[in-house]
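Work Package 3 (structural annotation) set out to generate three-dimensional models for the target panel prioritized at the project kickoff. During this period the team completed the workflow that converts sequence records into discrete structure tokens, so that structures can be stored uniformly alongside our sequence database. As a representative example, we reproduce one entry of 99 residues exactly as it appears in the project archive.
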Amino acid sequence: HYITTSYAPQAGNQAIRGLDVAQQPSNLRALVASRDTNQPRMSAPFRLRQSGAGGRRLDGFILRLPVYATYPASTDLDQRRAAMRGSLGASFRIQTLLD
């Protein structure tokens, strides 16, 4: 489980407070891929929680970056997995980027 505990800006993002990333398969896949490779990873498009219930179905994506207990991160996959402390995520609305 990866629970969202910090986010900015506060305005417009209250819907992600307490969100378990495991509830969003596309977001979780990006998180796990970034953890395992120590590289940024982009999720496939999905409906962002901030969009509310009436939002477009596939309106955004998340860019993920792992946070480890120590840096530099180990080159060993099992050690990286054990050292994982969280993940930074930046959400983007697809239409806003296109505009």
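The first helix runs from residue 25 to 37.
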